[in-house]
Amino acid sequence: MLPDRSGLSTRDSHAEQLDWAESELSGDQLLELDTQPIRGHSYWSLALRRLYRKKLAMVCISIIAFMYVGSLLSPLITPYDFRAVDLQNTRQGPSLAHPFGTDRQGRDMLTRVIFGVRTTVIITITSLLGGTLVLGVVMGLMSGYMGRWVDAVIMRTGEVTSSFPEILLLLIFVSAFRPRLLTAVQAFEDATGLDWIIRLGVLDFMIISVGLAIFGWFGMARLVRGQVLQARESQYIEAALVTGASTAHILRVHMLRNILSPLIVSVSAGLAGVAGAELVLSWIGVGVFPPTPSLGRMLFENGSPQVLLNHPHLILFPIGAVTLLFFCFNILGDAVNDAFNPRTR
Amino acid sequence: MGVYVIRRLIWLPFLVVIVTFITFAMLRLGPGDPVQIWLGQHQNDEVRERIRAKLGLDDPLFIQYARYMEGVITRLDFGESFKFRGKSVREVIGTRILVSMQLNLAAVIITLGVGIPVGLLAALRQGTGWDNLIVSIALAFQSLPVFITAPVMLLVFALHLDVLPTSGWGGFFSPKIIMPAIVMGVPGIAIVVRLVRASVLDVLGQEYVRTARAKGLPELTVRYRHILRNALIPVTTSFGFILAGLAGGTFIVEIYFGIPGVGRLSLEALNARDYPVLMGFAIIATTFFVLANLIVDLMYPWLDPRIRLGAGHVA
Amino acid sequence: MVLASFRLLILPAMLSLLVLVLACGGGSPPETETSPAATEPTPTLPARAAAAPTATQSAGDAGTSAATPAQAPTRESVPGQPSTSGAVPTVAPLAAPAAGENCAPSADLTFDNRPPQGGTLVRLYADPPSIDPHLVSDATSSVITNEVFGGLVTLSLDYQPVLDLAESCSVSDDGLTYTFVLRENASFQDGSPVTAQDVKWSIERAADPDTLSTTAETYLGDIVGVKDKLCTEEAQGAGECTIADEVRGVQVIDDRTIEFTLDAPKAYFLAKLSYPTAYVLDQDQVTEDGSWLDRPNGTGPFRLAQYDIGELLILEKNEHYHLGPPHIDSVHMILSGGTAMIMYENDEIHLTGVGTDDLPRLLDPNDPLNPQLHRSAQDFSVFYIGLNVNDPPFDDPKVRQAMNYAIDLSGIAENVLDNRVSQATGVIPPGFPSYNENLRGYTFNPDLARELLESSTYADALASGDFPRITLTISGSFGATVPTYLEVMLEQWRALGIEIDIQQTEWATFLQDVNDKKYQMFSHGWIADYPDPENFLDLLFHGESQNNHTSYSNPEVNRLLEEARTERDRDRRFEIYNQVEQMVLDDAPWVWTWYRGEGYALIKPEVSDYFLLQMSIPKYRYIYFNK
């Protein structure tokens, strides 16, 4: 099973069911809060305040922020060109000139790791904007709000799409579409003078995001749908309807607001998943291509006892960066969850 | 409720057919050709056409699918593998599935065996430094990629200490299963710890626990009879989930430790465009998934009456 | 409520899955990954490509690659600094048989100085895609079928065709008719004798369209009547052939004598006949026993005693073998993979390939494993980057030559690949018949490369930044990574101002697209099927050949290649091939990269006479345990 990059649980039925159950609870939560005098604001500020109190989580947020900002500035802060090979100095251990050593082609590992983090950062952003989230929310809103046959069609389609052996289809999907898209994007790059779309792997992650969305939107859609069903029966929607608000307005203003909290929790908890997806994609053979550094490929090429024994720096530094990032995302996801769903605490 | 179940059951075979057909179609219409793989470096269009015709790969898609499904339904015949020429799909897949299931089971035992007591400990120490420490350590283990845990285990236990065999498969009770099961099971511990912790905290707040304590029952009895037992209900339901989740992640472990499981086979089959084997996997996986989905759907209202089945159809 | 808390766990669960799945990514095991030389999936051999992720490859190939001057039963061991030169056996060129005399010598008898008998050799290997010799088209399978089955002709340790089941063979004056006489003691593993009828039936089975052999045309197509036997109704309708039940060109004279008639004199016929497609099967077993492949009754030195897919394959010695039974009792091939190096150090297997990461340590004379390290010569194969000569900018030969001059292959081989590969100086690898060491190939010369570019038709485009886009496609299955050396090459081309994008496609798609000539620039390779230069030059560079993926077509080259096909004088043939090779080098439809093979292998000291060869040849019967 391919893990969902955004952590918005996809095909696993438990996950869907639990999302649903959970959403009911947070729905209660919201409704409860709605009855309070200060209304919505207090809910958010309370959650944030709960989050502030978690020291480890705050440390992790700082680390994540540091890594994101640092990596986006990587061309300015790295000591070497990440592509500059040096055949006389391959596989050197850490030294003053190369604090993380050099890789198999004699390139500076510190630079490569920093740029690798940058790749991950770009990917997390691309993927979050990618299909699963958007498609899931839209489908869920439609399904929940319109009901009847629309609901039935969407739900049945979702069951079909989420029953596939994803990796298989994803691979076929990618191998069928990538060459065509690559040609198109190359033409686009030539026409516009941009040159980073392919090199940064944005193209690949766009394709993958769409591919994953096709097979993975259902979990999110069910979550949203459950939430909408909850809200539909609540009084303020009825009131909105009575006052003649349009469907779009109701969806946008009232319901979207209701599902934001579970959404934030999902996204924050899923960030590590997004980061990790890069490794999976390398494995499928569609990730970022050299010479663009990728932590995924570094782990991949060097995750062996032989490397650990003979050239440990090749694996330990990238692993360190990945583990730190995953750990911070995990802690953050955990903390955000606690903050937004205090009852489970 | 009854209507809902019947509706689901009627829908089930359609679901399997739709999913398998689309998989079938995508495999055949997608790029790559098993005959070309057989030909390897000797590409020859004439030979390729001849063999494709003999294999029936040039027939219309629906006819191919119907022929395939007929074999599956009437004779339980999944065809002959394209990669392992001369071997039937059942022969190729059969033992692999058993191996993977046993490995997954071993991993789950480790996940639960460590996760439950640790989660309980964390809950009972709620709010103290221990609580945070335990959860953080579990999360840290979860964050370690297999790329480092597997090689480290191999170096330490196989090479330096020489206490465990490096690789291979010897059945559920062979020491060969220990390392792969640990590598697979450990990352999941964090999930169980947090699950158990949350549900224990939940149970702690329940009236019957207060009642039990008020009655003056010994603390141990309260803990194990009242708290743990009730807190474990959601853990039991998660068992299947954890198992299913592991099934997706066995590839690398199989490769590091030389285990003849499903993961590697399906990759090899995909690389070789072994349609019959892939379809065999697709049918088994889809059926399994759909059934599991149904069972879970049916179990939830029983576990939590607040969830109404078919609640989607609000007028 | 309790349920609610569950969801928190799900999301992290996804992560952990992720981590696991990543793992899967691992597709490739350690050694395989890290040593591009041995591990990049071998493009030409699907079986090996598929096997790449199973870690077995590097180990698995310790057998199929090369090493020792063939006839010397002692292996060259490599203390300290290995020497590339001298490790390559000189192969006597393939002689066109003179009329009248025996057309090939007999295969060696298994050494009868009675070394210690018994023992079991354990090694890692990969699942053979096929056990049926008539279906085999890859090196992984042929290692197994070579030991289990046999045919009239096999290859000796120095890659010469020698007689296996046949005891004598003669050629007619016109070079069209070959007559073989079977050995008196030639028998199947169950003890029943091999007759001329069995040979004829086997050839006809291989050439039967229902057998679905992919190699029958290639290896048997020179025999009169094979094309008609392979004929289908469609082809007959198109007037290409006439459906026939038997192969006319194979005639049984008596129980032990059989005659082959060819459509033209072909110097490489005997070499082709050594391929598994021409192996002899037991007609009774194959026709009557639907599951004959589980325990095939072959004629080889070992019989297949057990095969559990993905787990274990066991070969046991054939006491009836006509060249004398093997010394060891059995060979266990572990198919489930694992970390080969650790298994070797733990004494779980007898031999393994060596990855780049271990090599420096093993080359140290003080390392306890150093005496067990063996250098192997490169396989009979060549690896290259194809340039589509119709696609800009590669439609200008100067650009293609500049691409060749721009890369520092020897520097890469030394510093990145630990000299496990050697620079391809031409098409034909060293040691192969017609190898020519006086070719004018390419050496690292960035200045010349720049000059060539500046005098090419793309000089202005390069200067103005309008140089055509270049995409390099490489094949790679799950877990395959971009070879380290390619990244260095990209960098060296970039130094010339040529930016190249890399695209990786998995093997099945790659095969299809490369066959359709869809790629502008692609990384590929060719592994010899039989020891004759025709197998490299004609198949890869003739304008009509389906294996010519670069659209390269030079009328003069085509004419010479056609002339060489029927030239019976060996020296003249080789002269033509040398000439063609030089013309191709000058036209540069490729960027030449490597000759490569296993490079190094570790073999336990108690194993004697395990030969590291450049092609797959029956060789397990020579092995013995010296203690």
How would you sum up this structure, described in words?
The complex is a heterotrimer of chains A (345), B (315) and C (627). Helix content of chain A is 74%, strand content 0%. By secondary structure, chain A is mostly helical. In chain A, helix 11 (247-284) runs parallel beside helix 12. The two termini of chain A are 30 Å apart. In chain B, helix 5 runs antiparallel to helix 6. Chain C is 30% helix and 16% strand. Chain C has a 5-stranded mixed beta sheet, sandwiched between helices. In chain C, strands 1-10-9-8 form a 4-stranded mixed beta sheet. A 4-stranded antiparallel beta sheet of chain C has the order 4-5-7-6, covered by helices on one side. The longest helix of chain C is centred in the N-terminal third of the chain and has 24 residues, at 2-25. The N and C termini of chain C lie far apart (70 Å). Chains in contact: A-B, A-C, B-C. At the B-C interface, helix 2, helix 3, helix 5, helix 6 and helix 7 of B face helix 1, helix 4, helix 13 and helix 20 of C.
List key phrases describing it.
heterotrimer; A: 345 residues; mainly alpha; disordered N terminus; B: 315 residues; 13 helices; globular
Number of strands of chain A: 0
Instruction: Work out the largest interface and the residue count of each chain.
Output: B-C, 95 and 85 residues
Q: What oligomeric assembly is this protein in? A: heterotrimer
- Overall geometric form of chain C: globular
End-to-end Cα distance of chain C, whole Å, is 70 Å
Number of helices of chain A: 14
Helical content band of chain C: 25-40%
Radius of gyration of chain A: 23 Å
**How would you sum up the major sheet of chain C?**
5 strands, mixed
Mean pLDDT of chain A: 73
- Helix/strand structural class of chain C: alpha+beta
Poorly predicted segments of chain A: 1-40
- Can you give the mean pLDDT of chain C? 81
Backbone shape of chain A: globular
Helix content of chain A: over 70%
Q: Count the helices of chain C. How many?
A: 23
Strand content of chain C: 15-25%
